[in-house]
Structure formats: C-alpha cells, structure tokens
Backbone:
C-alpha cells in the first residue's frame, strides 16, 4: 500500500517560498515522475515527502495517516539518492541489510531478504565487496537493493540515473520500470530529463518554479499540454512556437506545432523558408528551416533519405488538426 | 633520443634534490650522529662523520643525570591528554557546523580562528596570575588546559574540513533507513570520520609536543615537558655536545616518526583548509 | 537538511567549544586591558593605582622599544623572504619526476618537527659556536678567522635558525598547491608556445598566488611570537630583543606588569591587523 496525498503543502527557506501551497495525490502502485528544469522544486518536494525537510505548512498523508511530523524512518518510504549515498566502509551485504539491522529484524529474515534482493538485481557475486570496488551501474543497483529489502510503501528516486553514462542509463531505466511492474509498489521518481519521464511514468507531474503546471499520463501531456511551458518541455525535438502575423491568422497570440505535423515541400505550401542545418538520424531527418521575421528556426521532421540541401528554398504546410493555440498568458485555448 | 633526454633530466634532478634534501636534513642527522660519539670525538678537529667509536653511554648519562624519562612522561601526558580533551569538545562542534550549518557558522569558525591568532605574550601575565591563584603553576593539569585551549581552534577546523567532505546524502540515507541519531553517529558517521579524526589527533599531538612558550613559562622542575628539559641545556652544560645531542635526539625522535605520517594533514591543519 | 530537532541538538553540541574559547579569550584579554592602565609592580608594592595611558606612552618611548620593533621586523621580514623564495624553488624541484621523491620530501620536511628549543640549541652550539661549531671548522678549512655568529651577526643567526624551521612548512604548502594545478593547463600553454620560464611566470606563479599569501600571513602570525629560539640562544641580547621578548621581560623578568600589559595590547593589535587579511582569504574559501 502506498497512497500518498499532499494537501496545501508549502515550503519556505527563510523568506524564499520554494513551493507555494500545492495539492497532489499519488495512487497506490502508481509510477509518478516529477519533472521540470533544475531549480523547479522537484527535489525539495520529494524530500518533503521523505521527511528530510519539514513542511512550512500543509499536510502529508501516507495511506490515510497524517505523516506530516512523522520522522523519515517511520514513514515506511525508501529513497534512492542521486549520489547513491552508499556507506563506503560497509560491504554491499552490510549496505543492503543496514535498514533491516536498524529495525532489529531477525537475522535469518535479514539474510533471506538480502539474498533475494541480490538475486533480483544481479548482485549475488558482489555481496562481499565494498562500494568503492563497484562500477556506477552496480552501485546504483546496491542503492536500489537497500531500498527494496525494506519492502517500503513507496520508493522515492531522486535523479537516480544522472550520474550514469548514456548507455547504462537506458538499461537502468528499463530495469527500474521492470522492477515496478514486478513489485507493483508506488514509485515517485524525480528527473529533469523529459525522456525518462515519458518512457517510465504512469503519471507525470510537470513542475515549474515550485508550481504544478500539469498532471497527466505521458501521452496526455504530449497531446494536450495546457500551457506553453508544458508544450515546450514535453516532447523531443521541442515544439515549434510561432507568434506575430502567422499566429494571428489562427486567432492566437502564439501557435505551437510539433515537427512531425509540418509537411515540407520544395515547390508549394503555406509558409516559405530556407533550409539551414539538417540532422540526419537515419530513420528521420530533422530540418532546421529559417523563415523571414522569425529568429528561431523551425524544426521539421522529414523522411530518412530526403534530397534537400543547405540553402534550398522550402515550403511548409502545418497539419491544421495539430496546431496548438495559446493566448497572451501562455494558456492554451481550444 | 627523447627518452634519453628525459632520463638524463631525471638523473640530474634526482641528484640536485637529494643534495638539497640532505643539506636541509643535515642538522638533524649531525645531532643524531653526535649523540653516539664520545665527548672528545664530538668536538674533534677536524670533525668526524661516521668513523668514530659508536657508543650509547650518552643516553644512559642523560637519563641518570636529568631524569629524561620523567620529562618524556610529562610530554606524553600533556600532549596526549590535551589533544584528546580537545577532540572530545571539538567533535560535536565540528559535526554540527558541518552538517547543520546556519548563517552564523562561518562567523563562528572565523572567530575561533581569530582566538588562535591572539599572541600568547599578550595574555602572559593574566594566565600566569590565574595559575598562581589556582595553584596550577608547574602542574600537568594547568598545561593540559592551556594547550587544549590554544589548539582547540585548529582541532575544530581540521575536523570541520574533514566532516564537510562526508556527503550529506549518506547521513540522510541512514536517517531514511531508520537509524536514530546515536546510531547514525555510531554506525555511519564515526567509521567514515575515523581517518580524519586520527589525522587531527596526530597533528595536534605534534603541535602540543613542540609548544615552547607556555611550557617554558608555566613549568619548572616538576611538570616540565621535553621542551623545558632541553632548554635547561642552554646553560654551560650544553657545551657537552654528545650529551646535548643524545638529549635532543630523544626529544625529537618520537615526533619525527609521527610527523612523517602526518605530512598531508599538516597542510590542511595549518592553513585552515585554504590549501588542500 | 534540517528538521527542527536536529537544529536544536546541533546548537547544544556546539556550546561547549564556543563557551570554552569565549572564556579563554575574554578573561585574559580583559585582565590585560585592566592591567595596562595600572601601575602594577607585584614585587615592588603591587597595585599602585590607575595611571591612564601612561604605560602605553612609556612603552613606546622607552629606549628599547624601537630597537625591538626593528629586530622584530628584521627577523619576520628576513625569514619570510628566505622561506618563500626557497620554498618556491624547492616546491618546483620536488614536483619533478625523480627517484626517491618520498624520501627527499621527508628529509625536507623534518626540520618542522624538531622542537624549537632543540633546533635553537643545536644550531647555537654545534654549528655557530666560534670554537667547536661546524661553521668554525668550515671557516678554518678555508683559512678564515672563526666568526662569532650569535654576537657579531646575531639577527642573521636567529633569522637563519628560524628560516630553517619554517622552510619545510612553506615548501609543503606550495608543493601541495603546485600539485593541485591542472596538468592540462601546462600542456595547453606548452602547445601555445610558452617557454618553461613563461609557463612558470604566467601559469604556475598566479596559481600559487593564494598559497603564497597564506604562507606569508600564517608565518607572520607565528613569527611575530617566536620566543624559544631567542630565549635559548641570545636571551634577547645583541639586538635580538623582539617585541614579544621585550614584553616577556617586562612582565616576568622585571615584573612591571602594567607596562608589559600595555605592550601586550600593542602586540594583540599588531597580530590582529595581519589576522584580518588571513581571515578574509580563509572566509572566502569557506564559501566554496
């Protein structure tokens, strides 16, 4: 069971409010990702849930109980830190069993749980090593192992993959997702990487300046962002934004259109521009098209092997059904 | 071609460095050598370096005549106890400043540093007077307290810089894992801090051992440590070079050995973390 | 981190150290200030009443004041010049690849661990003695008349002894600083065509700047209060009476506590001027 509710939770550091009153509900068994640019308050929010920071006001409920002033260890939550925070002077076995020893659990049960966690995480051969002798990915697994053995109500991950290299990161992403499927335990995961959020989450919480911008499933956020910030943050490549005359034609202050919803043509179309850089990814090509009176180039997705060169004139036609319109406050209008 | 040049260079540099190193070390070496000579050989003209009749008699004479062991014991007690007391007071302070810093932490640290800058001679008489009033003159306890106080800022600072290197996340992890404050300190902090604490003890033991203002001014025959023991040789007795050398060797040998272990910590401790 | 109770506990843990140092600082300082305004001769009548700033004036107008300032400046300045200059050279040398680097390092550092009374006595008797000292033998070997180091060149002699003690400290700090220099910077400079000398001047020396400043400040504070070296060698005669030694004599030898305390206040002010600069650097470093 891991049902977490935040009611009007607010956090101030001195005179600075980092999280204005905020409400959020995390369902039991859900994989929730907090995503946002650095400094948006996502880590602080996680630490409030963990109990590593006091809330300035508001209530945190875990499984219906008021946990606002319950110390971290008593909340039944486990946390995986960005730096892994392994105890350097303990072996892997001691690291993983540490929370069990602190809870004075029966020795045999400790042993059983450590062995089981090690088997799940492919750490059996490394149990007697120290963290210093492990690779980054292995350390990450030990940190997860230390969280698993407690059989917590929920797992909290604070940017756990940001210290790994790109290839390992993809692998660990799959492992954590797999773990979630198997354990069916609530997981709250903090990241600044929208790709991680899109690929792992059941529910994404987009944060900006301490405020929740939007909550929803990955595809909901992709298809129906409620404002400019979410539209620009979710999705890769970034959504193209156009304002001025061209936007007014659509009765909007700003219009947004994703690269896959623009049809390029060498001969005819709605907007005229010139091809700048093109990124050839094999399956796709992303063209950067420069248009008059428009500083930012427009990114357009095109087929893998197109015959378009730097400097060519090109015409773009947006797919009318996929144009997002925003008002002058940046809110989307339908 | 390039390789021979590098090796030639290395040979030259090795030769220069060893020459200079030995030159700087020479007074120590000469003292140690002289301590094994007879008095006649010690002042022989021209001086003899290695080819003399090695003898240990100076050591036994020094012990007999001036009770070296009692001074040694005083040094060990004064340096050891003052350092340990300092650690006892400083560990909690450094712990709290490193892990729960507040706006005032920096000011407190700098203020502690400033007390270390206070010239001893400026407070010589007050301390002297207090010692007379409390009957502390020429007692071990008195010196222990004074040396603990003058080294306390350095101890706090060194521990602070070591503790600050322990990632906060690890302590938070321990807290999440259900460790109480006592267990957090016992199982997580202490094992990680032991190397730093050991270095701090080592360096401050050395500093206390060599302290030569208060130990000279506040002791006489009873509680005098080795600094005072050696100073007593500045009388004409010092002209007996071999005995002076034996006494000196005995006074510095323990610290030379300890000192070699603490080179790295020396920099950190004496620059207050400004050079690492 | 910071939950409320961990804050409270942390304040309590700091209290003993702060309290002890506060007492250690305030009580003697207040007493020194108090005595400095009194005519106080413990062996000749004791407390003879308030005299205002008389002690301060008498201290600086006495015939031994200026010589003592000069002696202090000569020793501190001389030692700083010698140690910093040679420490830079030594640090550069020790940073080069060589055989037995660890042993050379130990040889160079050793003098720092020799207690001040020992080094003063050894230098005084076994090296600088005009009859049996090694220098005397060396002079004779070259056919020169033996030199009375501690009386004919007393300031130079004391400066030499103290420099020998402090050279390791300066070397060790500068060596540590050099070793923290990013090697790629030097390689980049080499590729950019900088000669060895240019690399030293434009890259190594600026990198050492802060370490050199720290060496100068810390040594100054310690050197201003050197005591044992003078106590053991010349007892302040032959122009080696430093400010510290003068105050010591006023307080403990002639037992003129009022006068000595006024001198003590001067010494405290002097040390604080240096300390302010040091604390600025250290403080800046804390913020990193």
Residues:
């Amino acid at each position: 069971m891991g049902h977490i509710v935040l009611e009007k939770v607010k956090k101030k550091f001195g005179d600075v409010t980092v999280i204005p009153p905020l409400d959020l509900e995390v369902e039991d068994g859900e994989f929730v990702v907090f995503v946002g640019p650095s400094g948006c308050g996502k880590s602080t929010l996680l630490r409030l849930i963990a109990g590593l920071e006091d809330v300035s006001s508001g209530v945190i409920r875990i499984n219906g109980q008021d946990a606002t002033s319950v110390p971290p260890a008593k909340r039944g939550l486990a946390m995986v830190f960005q730096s892994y925070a392994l105890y350097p002077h303990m072996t892997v076995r001691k690291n993983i069993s540490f929370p069990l020893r602190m809870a004075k659990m029966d020795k045999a049960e400790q042993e059983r749980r450590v062995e089981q966690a090690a088997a799940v995480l492919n750490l059996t051969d490394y149990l007697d090593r120290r963290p210093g002798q492990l690779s980054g990915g292995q350390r990450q697994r030990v940190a997860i192992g230390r969280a698993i053995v407690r059989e917590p109500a929920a797992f909290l991950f604070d940017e756990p993959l940001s210290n790994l290299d790109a290839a390992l990161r993809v692998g660990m992403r799959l492992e954590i997702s797999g773990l979630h499927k198997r354990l069916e335990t609530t997981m709250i995961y903090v990241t600044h990487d929208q790709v991680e959020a899109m690929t792992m989450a059941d529910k994404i919480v987009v944060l900006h300046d301490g405020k929740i911008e939007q909550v929803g499933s990955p595809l909901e956020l992709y298809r129906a962002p409620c404002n400019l910030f979410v539209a620009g943050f979710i999705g890769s490549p970034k959504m193209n934004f156009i304002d001025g005359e061209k936007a007014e034609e659509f009765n909007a202050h700003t219009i947004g259109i994703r690269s896959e919803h623009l049809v390029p043509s060498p001969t005819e179309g709605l907007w005229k521009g010139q091809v700048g850089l093109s990124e050839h990814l094999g399956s796709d090509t992303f063209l950067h098209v420069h248009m008059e009176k428009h500083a930012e180039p427009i990114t357009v997705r095109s087929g893998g092997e197109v015959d378009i060169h730097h400097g060519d004139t090109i015409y773009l036609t947006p797919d009318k059904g996929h144009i997002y319109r925003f008002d002058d406050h940046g809110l989307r209008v339908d | 071609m390039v390789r021979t040049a590098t090796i030639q260079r290395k040979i030259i540099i090795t030769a220069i460095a060893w020459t200079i190193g030995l030159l700087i070390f020479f007074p120590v070496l000469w003292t140690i050598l002289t301590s094994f000579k007879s008095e006649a050989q010690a002042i022989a003209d021209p001086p003899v370096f290695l080819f003399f009749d090695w003898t240990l008699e100076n050591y036994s004479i020094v012990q007999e005549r001036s009770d070296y062991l009692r001074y040694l014991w005083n040094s060990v007690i004064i340096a050891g106890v003052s350092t340990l007391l300092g650690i006892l007071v400083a560990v909690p302070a450094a712990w709290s400043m490193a892990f729960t810093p507040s706006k005032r932490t920096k000011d407190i640290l700098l203020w502690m540093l400033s007390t270390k800058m206070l010239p001893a001679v400026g407070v010589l008489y007050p301390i002297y007077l207090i010692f007379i009033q409390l009957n502390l003159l020429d007692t071990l306890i008195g010196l222990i307290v004074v040396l603990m106080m003058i080294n306390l800022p350095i101890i706090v600072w060194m521990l602070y810089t070591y503790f600050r290197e322990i990632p906060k996340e690890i302590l938070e992890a321990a807290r999440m894992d259900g460790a109480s404050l006592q267990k957090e300190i016992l199982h997580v902090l202490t094992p990680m801090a032991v190397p730093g604490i050991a270095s701090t003890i080592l360096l401050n033991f050395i500093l206390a051992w060599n302290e030569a203002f208060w130990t000279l001014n506040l002791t006489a025959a009873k509680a005098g440590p080795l600094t005072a023991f050696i100073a007593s040789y500045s009388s004409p007795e010092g002209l007996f070079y071999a005995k002076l050398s034996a006494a000196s060797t005995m006074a510095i040998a323990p610290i030379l050995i300890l000192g070699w272990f603490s080179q790295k910590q020396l920099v950190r401790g004496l620059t207050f973390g400004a050079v690492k | 981190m910071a939950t409320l109770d961990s804050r409270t506990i942390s304040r309590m843990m700091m209290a003993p150290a702060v309290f002890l140092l506060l007492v250690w600082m305030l009580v003697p300082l207040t007493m020194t200030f108090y005595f400095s305004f009194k005519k106080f001769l413990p062996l000749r009548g004791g407390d003879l009443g308030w005299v205002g700033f008389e002690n301060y004036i008498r201290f600086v107008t006495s015939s031994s004041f200026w010589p003592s300032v000069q002696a202090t400046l000569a020793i501190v300045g001389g030692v700083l010049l010698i140690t910093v200059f040679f420490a830079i050279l030594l640090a550069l040398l020790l940073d080069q690849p060589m055989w037995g680097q660890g042993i050379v390092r130990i040889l160079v550092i050793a003098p720092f661990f020799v207690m001040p009374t020992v080094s003063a006595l050894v230098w005084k008797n076994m090296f600088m003695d005009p009859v049996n000292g090694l220098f005397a033998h060396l002079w004779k070997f070259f056919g020169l008349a033996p030199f009375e180091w501690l009386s004919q060149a007393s300031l130079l002699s004391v400066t030499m002894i103290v420099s020998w003690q402090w050279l390791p400290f300066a070397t060790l700090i500068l060596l540590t600083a050099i070793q923290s220099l990013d090697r790629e910077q030097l390689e980049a400079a080499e590729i950019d065509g900088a000669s060895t000398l240019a690399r030293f001047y434009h890259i190594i020396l600026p990198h050492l700047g802060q370490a050199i400043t720290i060496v100068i400040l810390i040594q100054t504070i310690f050197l201003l209060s050197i005591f044992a070296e003078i106590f053991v060698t010349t007892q302040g005669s032959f122009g080696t009476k430093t400010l510290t030694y003068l105050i010591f004599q006023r307080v403990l030898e002639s037992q003129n506590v009022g006068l000595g305390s006024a001198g003590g206040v001067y010494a405290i002010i002097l040390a604080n001027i240096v300390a302010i600069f040091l604390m600025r650097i250290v403080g800046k470093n804390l913020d990193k």
Remarks:
- The longest helix of chain A spans residues 166-183.
- Chain A touches chain C through five residues (CB under 8 Å).
